[in-house]
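I'll show a sample.
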Amino acid sequence: MLSPSGCNDIADRFSPTDETTFLREVKGNTLSPCFSGIQLMATEILPIPHLSSFSQLSVMKTEKPDRSNDKADNLENREKAIVPSPKFLRKKIVNPKSVNTNINDFRYLSRSKNTLWFFILGVALLVGGIGLWALSRLQEPAPQTADEAAPPRAEAALPVRAVQAVQAPIQAWVFGEGLGRAVRFKHLTFNSRGTITFVKKVNGRDLREGDFVRQGELLALVDRRSSDADLRVQRASLIESQTQVSQAQASLQQAIDDKIGADASLEQAKASLVEAQANFRTTVNDREFAEREYLRRKELYDSGVITRSELDSYETQYKNAIAAIDGAQSQVNSARKQVQSAIAQVSSAQKQVESNAAGVRSAVFGVDRANAQLQKVQVDREDTALVAPFDGAIAHLNIRQGDYWTPEIVQAGSTYDTLIERIPIIVIDPRSFEVEIELPVFQGSQVRPGQRAFIMGDSERSNNNGKTLTNEELMKQAKASGRVFSVSPSVSPGARSVSAIVRIERGNANIFNNERVGVWIAVEEKNNAVVVPWNTLVYRDRIPYIFAVKAGANGERIAEQREVQRGIVGLTLQEIQTNLKPGEWVVTDGKENLVDGAPVDVTIKERGVFEE
């Protein structure tokens, strides 16, 4: 049952145009608790003769009258005509004091006095009904409001799009641009002036760019008649110098032999001197002995012991000994002179040896000088010929047979682009290429030798213009791949960048010399990482979050907000290091409007497919 305030609420729900709905609810006894009040108000605003018709509303059946009965139709139309608008009734119920109870305001009161008694009786019945109704309401529990009685309305699920986290390889990339160039190349140029008299023929035609050549093959010649003459002169000079060396060496050898003979004579003279000196000492000893014997025999003779003849014999021996000393002394003096002569001969021979040795050195220097001149002529002569330095291909060919060449042609080039258009021939080894790139310092600090690199040309990059490449697409579409060969430890003063060189290991045949290419270097890699697309992350207070799709208590899907830790950032993927497992579903589109625990309706699910 409805309270009086409930009646006012019901009245408030109807506008002046909702009279039909209001009548239907009255017929259905929906407003039966409020009917007495409504009837009271009706008596104040409706003509008295119609009061009995209005009273029939409280007992009218919910079924609609038969439309085929004209009488019923007329009754229903009449009932509609006498039912006041709910807005008017609401005003009467809410503020009864505002009701004008002046009987004189009703034009129908003057028709009959009996009508007043019916009115008084109705008021009495109404007051009694209200009292009984109030007593019954006091004995009932407090009624529920419409909002409390209605079941809770389920919160609408937000449509979202989700992907499944997977475990896959991921790489962090650094990008740079540079020129692809052959690791081995040679600029072949003439250093001699002259007319180009020869250019290599290939199958009867002139040499062309792109032709392969073998190491040592003669590719082109400049007129070398002058260099041939210089070569003959220098060869003759070398032969002359070599002859002088031979003569000087022979003289030196003779001087050495003479010195050897002088040395031998000196030794012999020294031996003779030693022998003469020994003989001299012997004669001296003999004289002393003969003198003593003579004096002793003289004493004996004076004593008459011996005869005069015996004394004369000892005297003779004494005199012979004195004479022998003079001869021995002469031999010693002669031997000393021989020694001095031999010493002089040795000294002279030594000087001759030294002189001849200097002559040999001078002759040898002449040979060396002649050899140097010959080599210079030979080099100059070689500069008139261009020879393949290794097995390779002709990258640039800027000469033809009959052209006049002068070294100033190359020197006139101010830039490398101009230079390569002036150098006669450039040979490269097409089997090995490298790319030198310049990187900003903050990126160059991440690059290390040995890191993988992938190379794309202008055509591949044009095909992907405006498209975000995935890691797999990058590796698949790359025309070549390799590894970082070297990283400069210094920053270039002008560009304030770090230089790195990438050596190509696969796809050398796809690279052109001096081709501008883009290089992606994998500065960080992980083979088994939990990855999701970039657009799964949402930042709140600079903290990264994801919304994982979970099952709720009643089987519905809800979004669970999780704080995560980022890992490697790829081209389109992001590694999640915490709070996410492979196979879980993560919201991509629609996450901006989500909160933790919000119900979601996953409209599109991508299982491990990460496309923007």
